[in-house]
Amino acid sequence: AMIGKGNHAHFMMKEIFEQPAVIGETLNAYFNPASRTITIPNLPWDWNDLSRVTIIACGSSYYAAMVAKYWFEQVARLPVEIDIASEFRYREAPMPDGGMALFISQSGETADTLAALRYCKQAGQHIASILNVSESSMARESDIVFPTLAGPEIGVASTKAFTCQLVTLACLAIHAGVARGAIDHADEARLSSAITKVPEMATEILNNDATIRALAENIHEARDVLYIGRGLDYPIALEGALKLKEISYIHAEGYAAGELKHGPIALVDKDVPIIVIAPSGALFDKTASNLQQVSARGGRVIFLSDRDGIAAVGHDASAVVELPKADPFVTPILYAIPVQLLAYHVAIMKGTDVDQPRNLAKSVTVE
Ligand code: G6P
Fold first, then answer.
1. Cα 198–152–106 angle (5° rounding)?
2. Which run of H or of E encompasses 80?
3. What is the pLDDT of residue 161?
4. How far is CA 358 from CA 146, 229, 361, in A?
5. Substitution candidate for ligand 1 out of 12, 55, 58 with most atoms within 8 A of CB
6. Ligand 1 centroid to 59 CA: how many Å?
7. What local confidence, expressed as pLDDT, does residue 363 receive?
8. Collapsed DSSP state (helix, strand, coil) of residue 10
9. Spacing, Cα 176 to ligand 1 middle (Å)
10. Is 243 annotated as catalytic?
11. Hey, whose CA ends up nearest to atom 15 of ligand 1?
12. CB–CB of 265/297 below 8 Å?
């Protein structure tokens, strides 16, 4: 069937606004609300037999892998190695006996990711994939597929597929954590109920779209934009910068907040907007001090945080976006949304082709 844009001017915006629904559907596939447990199909491996997991992807899917590393290591005490498929496939990495390799891809067709999958298969790994397109090359060559139920994604820049990948990865990390005895049922219930609140919070963020559109006014003339975040929110800084450069053609870089002093702070002046992604939580004070270092040097800080974070250091920012206060476990899923919206509105102001940015392809099937 033909897929339309609904009430939206672009597929990308339609797909951003679908997120509350498709995040909910993806969660329903892996979470049983009656028992408050994660339920996934029988696995070809035992989580207790794994010494580490290897996760491989490209583009935004790779940033989902980065978030997953934090989740698996924290929640399941399972070491995770992540790599970009185009690097992994040529570096002849030694693989653990009976290991598991997990591939993340919206399309299931990205050439480098598929080649990396084949390498891991040769190396005797269990092959698992998180895919949005279930009839795809990676689906056919995997031992097990965890679908993301985002529905067809048409916009070249990934949005809803990315947040659904995160939901699936969060469920897998919880499942591994229980199986390995790293967390108990009470933790499982708490973490999964934090995910169940995401759709409603995502709706709240989308209802605040006008605030983000107003901020875009201050960004669309910038030449460079920096994004910083820490821990689980560091990959969202990378994703925010990627979204902006993909569709608005503004140079943007994502940095781990702690790396600011090792280079990017040299760029700070009144013309470089710095998007600080810092929900309140364990690492908040560290990122807040980075924010203050930037504003003390005349930097233009746009601060994405919650009520508590804004009460603490909001006065040091040029602009704030208040997001709902969430369990720190799920903040990467939520904070992905304002950075998508920001990139979208900046691109509209610049008049670029949002759904089909120049030089980019939805699925990179040739190297
Ligand atoms: C392209 C798309 C990105 C996507 C990446 C990986 O670069 O423009 O949005 O993240 O490919 O694609 P995949 O289908 O493997 O997730």
1. 75
2. strand 80-84
3. 98
4. 32, 28, 9
5. 58
6. 5
7. 86
8. coil
9. 27
10. no
11. 105
12. yes
In whole angstroms, what is the distance from residue 3 CA to residue 191 CA?
A: 35
Residue 170 to residues 26, 69, 329: CA-CA distances in angstroms?
11, 10, 9
Tokens linked to 185: 């049922």
Indicate the DSSP class of residue 278. Answer: -
Q: How many helices (H) and strands (E) does the chain have?
A: 14, 12
pLDDT tens digits, one per residue of 1-28: 578 898 899 999 999 999 999 999 999 9
Q: How many CB atoms lie within 10 A of CB 152?
A: 12
Q: Which stretches in the chain have pLDDT values below 70? A: 1
Q: What is the pLDDT of residue 1?
A: 58
| Torsion, CA 31, CA 206, CA 165, CA 356, rounded to 10 | 150
Q: Tell me, in angstroms, the distance from the centre of ligand 1 to residue 318's CA.
A: 33
| pLDDT score for 156 | 87
3-state SS class at 301: strand
Residue (of 213, 108, 106, 212) closest to 158 by Cα position = 106
C-alpha closest to that of 94 among 120, 116, 133: 120
Return d(Cα 129, Cα 138) in angstroms, integer. 7
Protein residue closest via CA to atom 2 of ligand 1: 362
What residues contact 133, with CB distance under 8 A and at least 6 apart?
106, 107, 108, 109, 139
**ipTM, 2 dp:** 0.98
CB atoms inside a 10 Å sphere around CB 336? 30
- For a mutational test of ligand 1's pocket, the pick from 61, 112, 138, 239, i.e. the residue with the most ligand atoms closer than 8 A to its C-beta, is 61
> Cβ < 6 Å from ligand 1: which residues?
58-61, 105-107, 110, 113, 156-158, 360, 362-364
Most ligand 1 atoms within 8 A of CB, residue of 146, 162, 364, 365 to mutate: 364
- 10 Å CB burial of residue 24 (0-12, 13-18, 19+) is middle
Ligand 1: centre distance to CA 361 (Å) = 8
Q: What pLDDT was estimated at residue 357?
A: 87
AA identity, residue 157: A
